From TrEMBL, chains A, B:
Pfam families: TetR_C_11, TetR_N. It comes from Actinoplanes philippinensis. This is DNA-binding transcriptional regulator, AcrR family. Transmembrane segments: none annotated. SUPFAM superfamilies: Homeodomain-like, Tetracyclin repressor-like, C-terminal domain.
Amino acid sequence: MDPYPQAPPGAARPGGRTARTRAQVLDAVASLLLEGGFDALTVDAVAARSGVHRTTVYRRWRDTGALLADSFDAAREQPWQPPDTGSLLGDLTEINRQIVAALTEHPSITGALITASFRSPAAARALRDFWEDRFATAAVVVERAAPGADPRTVLIAACAPVFYELALLRSPAAGDLAERYARVGAAAAG
Amino acid sequence: MDPYPQAPPGAARPGGRTARTRAQVLDAVASLLLEGGFDALTVDAVAARSGVHRTTVYRRWRDTGALLADSFDAAREQPWQPPDTGSLLGDLTEINRQIVAALTEHPSITGALITASFRSPAAARALRDFWEDRFATAAVVVERAAPGADPRTVLIAACAPVFYELALLRSPAAGDLAERYARVGAAAAG
């Protein structure tokens, strides 16, 4: 469920000049965001950091919101397979572990993108699209274990407390966080 | 669970010049935050809006972070009684309804304070203290209905999905949001 499960957006993208340009630009977005937060993210800074001509960046992305939105879109395009551990509790725990890892790594691009979503409506919409897409992909985890349950409700029951604890309360990541709230999700499946 | 259950911070505070000054200053913080967000919140703007001399504001609050932290502290000092509807599901639903109301009113001071917590570490710490205090007060709801359950886990199971949906995913507030996730909390109580 990490927006960057393996590599920065576009890093492993197959060739083509357009794809390479996008990868360079989105890598620059990620590194500027991690270094200086939303305020460091300007189209000019992205152009300078990426080595892509600023008229190209302006033409294709136009503004900071579009750069952030495309970062989420690129993350969404990364292949992600829901876990298949043999039990609903095991699968929800593994999904939560991925979220904990994404939110507690230093620096955390996931955390930086969540923060940016409070500055940019375009980023907020793209964040939502990213998560709804991941929940749709992960629905199979619930459907095969608890056919009568609503997959999205179960997934949010398990995942939302992890986001709430780490991204909103900024609680220290207790060792059992992933499993504790995976149990909540499993209980919600009935 | 609304940071401002009845009135802006300090509004109903009993007399005394110090208390009145604080009420005026924190009212100004709230209105500036609602009008212009974090960027509009400067000590000078708060002094001008509140009519309190800027040297007084600087001496007592020092900076934006301290003003935000004191806004959360004032909210925490507001009396709040956990609901007592006769059932755990009823109580959790009522708590969630209060959170939904606080996050969906226009303008939402709760939403504005959450957003500010992504700009100010002092605000983030104060937000956490506010919520941990509310969870401690609300623990009785779980303790009387499910003595074996961990109150904080049950309360977060019910409330975190509401925050996640409305504050992070920015989902539209579906009619049954409060009750849907109250059921999750009740199921987590075992």
